[in-house]
Structures are given as C-alpha cells and as structure tokens.
Amino acid sequence: MAKQEDIFKNVVSHAKEYGFIFPSSEVYDGLSAVYDYAQNGVELKKNIREYWWKAMVQMNENIVGLDAAILMHPTTWKASGHVDAFNDPLIDNKDSKRRYRADVLIEDYAEKLNQKAQKEIDKAKARFGEAFNEQEFVTTNARVMEYKSKQRAILERMARSLENEDLADVKLLIEELEIACPESGSKNWTEVRQFNLMFGTKLGASADSAMDLYLRPETAQGIFVNFLNVQKSGRMKVPFGIAQTGKAFRNEIVARQFIFRMREFEQMEMQFFVRPGEEIKWYEHWKETRLKWHLSLGLGENKYRFHDHEKLAHYANAAADIEFDFPFGFKELEGIHSRTDFDLKAHEQYSGRKLQYFDPELNENYVPYVVETSVGLDRMFLAVFATSLQDEVLEDGSSRTVLKLPAVLAPTKAAILPLVKKDGLPEIAHKIIADLKWDFNVSYDEKDAVGRRYRRQDALGTPFCITVDHQTMEDQTVTIRHRDTMKQDRVNITELKNIIESEVAMKNWLMKM
Ligand code: ATP
C-alpha cells in the first residue's frame, strides 16, 4: 500500500480512537460522507472557527459578523444560479456499478501526466545538482514538454465541453484516454449526466401547500441578501465586509476522503463589498492576507500553494484557491474569488428591490463589487489534524505518537496529573484545575503510570502536562512538561497561568500574521 494511504488511514483511525471524529449514526453503520465531531474534535473545531472569526471580525473595524438561517426563500437559489447550474457531471461504470464525477476521472488522468513530468524533472535535478536550471529544462526537454502539453490539451478540451454542455464529448474524452474504472478496471461506461448537488426539502404541513426549499449549498447567499440590512443598520461604509460561519449541504456524488468532501459541512466565508473598479486591488489584498492567516499557524510554508484559475466561473473576474498538501496531495482548502456585482445584481433582478449603496465621497449610487474568501472549516480541521499527527522515534529508541497541534487550537491546554492517587496529591491537582479552568480548557487524569498518561496527552495534542508530586506538598512547585520537546521544568503553581497563557493566547499567534 502506498505510504500516503497509510498516513491517511492512520489519521482516520486516530481521529476516532481519541474522540475527535466519529462516523455519523455509527450504530446504524454510518451515513456516507457525514461525520460527527466528538468531545475533542468539537473543541478543536471551535478553536479553528474562533481563530478565523477573531482574525476577520474582531481585528478588522470594517468587518462585521452575521448568522443567517440555513433555510432561505427558494428564489435565492434561482437568482444565484444554483438551481440551473450547480451541477456535477456524473458517470457510472456498468460493471462495478460505481459512480464517478466525470471531470474528476479526467483530472486524475491529467494529474498523472503531470506527475510523470515531475519525475523527469526530479531525475534531472538529481543528475545535474547545483547546475540544474528547472525553467530551461521544462521548456526544452522533449518528454516533459510532451507530458505537459498533453495534460493542458486534455484539461482545455474538458473545460470547453463542460462549458458548452457537451456531455457526449466528455464521455468521448474518457473513452479516448482509455480511462478505466479504478475498482473494476473496466471501460464500460454509461453516458455522462448532470446532477444537481442541492438537497431539497419541504416547508409546510399539507402536501398541496408545501413549498419546495433547499438546504443552502453555501453560506454566501445569506450574506448577499442581507447586504443592505447590515450596511444600513451598521452604518457601514464601502469597503466593508460581512463574515459568517455555518453549515452548508451538498449532495456530493463522490464523497470519499473523510472530512475533505462531506455532504454536510461548515464554511467560514467573508464577502467584502468594494467600489466597482477597485476589486482587483482588494482581491490581491485578501489573497495575501488569507495566506498569512494560514501561515500564522506554523504548519509549514511548503504546505500551501496558490492555484490561480485560468478558466473563470461566469460571475468571477479573478479567482484563486489556496491549496494545501493533504495526505492525498495538494487540494483546495480555501477559495478567493472576485465575484463582481453578479450576486447583488441577480438578487436585485429577482427580488425587484434595489441593493445599492450611496457612496457619499463619489456622490453616486452603485451596486458594490464583491471579493469573497471562503474556507471549509472541516478541511481546515483535516489540514491541521493530519499535519500535526506525527510518529517520532525518541533518543532511547522507543517511539511515540504525538499530535503537534498549534497550541492555540489544542482542545485541552493542560492536563493535571497527580503522580499517585493518594497522599493528598489528587486534592492539590483538583485545586490547580479549579484555578486554571477559568482561563483554559484543562483536564484531570490519574489512571496508569505517569509515563503512559504523558503519551495519552501527546496523542490528544495537549501542549502541557502538569504533574503534582510529593515535593509539591512541601514547596508548592510542580513539573510542567512541554508536549513537543518533552522538556520538564519545575515551577511554582502560581506561575502556571502565565506559562500556559504565553503559548496558547490567540493574540500571540495572530500577531504572527
Ligand atoms: P471542490 O472543488 O473541492 O468541490 P468547491 O470549489 O466547490 O470545492 P467552494 O464552493 O469554493 O468549493 O467552497 C468553498 C470552500 O468550502 C472550499 O474551499 C472547501 O474548503 C469547502 N468545501 C466545499 N465543498 C465541501 C465539501 N463537500 N466538504 C467539505 N468542505 C467543502
């Protein structure tokens, strides 16, 4: 089995074993691509959400929050284009009966060509060492050029066919490339069909008067339809932003990869309203600012890359993804889109109401342009969790599993451990907890030998273990052990709060932005 797959399996099982993520309704064998956040997962998720919220809302005078309802008037989704165009092209393999996204099958094929090109580049790099000029190699080496141009041609043809709704050509492309079902190996495919990703539901009791609704597939539209309410009641001046976190629902066709692609997930979105003509400046600003936010968590610069969209959605005039190096490769973590005035104009048109802003400096009314930043909370969780989960070989040859979460996000900040369950040590430990819990999430553990308790806290990502021993009775000191270095210091109980605070305070982390 590939190493990547091993790592990913390990992530999934660790998340379950240590109370981070469970399959939904597991007693009934689960529900595909739906997950529950367990006692530690809910804390980590909440901390990520708060880290985002503080960076967005608290630290920006011109950004305010919103919590719009999940259910919205159904015309919202006509106006936004979701009813007509929020589709994925699907294809079934007749032998395995497995369903795939046709575009993903083709993209995976194209990515393999890319990987082949990369292999050639890596080989040459190893051969030529310092003298290697990658730029020159990529533009002159016949093999690399062939792989790259083939990859481009495939992706371009697919994009063209999808845009023209030419699904027959999408199927033809799959046949021409001789793409086989990864499960059965067969090339026996059905036609390609469009499939709308919105979940439908009904409002109202009686069948004839019921209204067809959708569970929102994105949180953004709740912000757009409230744009003028917020602007007027908050006396906001363009440029300003509205931030929101909340659930979104998509009936994803291929929902594998754990919490990367879920049917019910949470988004953290901010729509920034700007003067027409100034959107590209703000788009660049938010691209840079969002990357800084990610980098402030310290998971490593090499884990992120931008993917600038060459082909833009009909409503956008610039778009990029921040991609993250997940255990299954670089994939979208966040989208930053310059959405023009498409959404507000569409809601004006469908509602018959004006959604305009009077700009006192220009002395004119206009529909603002919008720059959106949209990050999946669950994908953030996966990025942080998978990167932090590490197996370490220690100096004495033994090994440990440690979840090196950024301390600011760790579910529990400190575990208080009495060395033994007697001699008054548990009482002191409980007193320390009673004091620290006003400021931090802390836990108590007295079961097993202290070494095993340390290992358990390492696996949970707890940055500090505080051990109460017999010396504590005499001089009010305890040992504090640091998760990452495993270093232990003897400190006075009164110092604990400051020591923990300096490593976990959001302020100290956000200041790195
Ligand atoms: P993808 O191409 O991966 O399907 P998308 O381009 O459709 O994603 P957006 O509509 O831009 O995604 O949504 C914004 C963010 O919401 C994404 O960057 C991602 O982090 C998150 N997201 C989207 N779909 C899902 C999902 N099914 N499960 C978890 N997170 C998701």
Automatic annotation (TrEMBL):
InterPro entries membership: aa-tRNA-synt_IIb, aa-tRNA-synth_II, aa-tRNA-synth_II/BPL/LPL, Anticodon-bd, Anticodon-bd_dom_sf, Gly-tRNA_synthase/POLG2, Gly_tRNA_ligase_bac, GlyRS-like_core
Alphabetical list of SUPFAM superfamilies matching this protein: Class II aaRS ABD-related, Class II aaRS and biotin synthetases
Highest taxon above the source species: Bacteria
Enzyme nomenclature, EC number: 6.1.1.14
Aminoacyl-transfer RNA synthetases class-II family profile domain location: 177-418
Catalytic activity field: tRNA(Gly) + glycine + ATP = glycyl-tRNA(Gly) + AMP + diphosphate
Binding site for ATP: 250-252, 260-265, 332-333, 376-379
GO cellular component, one term: cytoplasm
GO biological process, alphabetically ordered: diadenosine tetraphosphate biosynthetic process; glycyl-tRNA aminoacylation
Entry binding sites for substrate: R101, E218, F265, E266, Q267, M268, E269, E372, T373, S374, V375, G376
Keyword Nucleotide-binding recorded: yes
Coiled-coil residue spans: 107-165
GO MF annotation list: ATP binding; bis(5'-nucleosyl)-tetraphosphatase (asymmetrical) activity; glycine-tRNA ligase activity
Family stated for the protein in its record: Belongs to the class-II aminoacyl-tRNA synthetase family.
HAMAP family membership: Gly_tRNA_synth_B
Cited NCBIfam families: glyS_dimeric, PRK04173.1
Assembly with partners or alone: Homodimer.
Protein name: Glycine--tRNA ligase
Taxonomic classification: Bacteria, Pseudomonadati, Bacteroidota, Flavobacteriia, Flavobacteriales
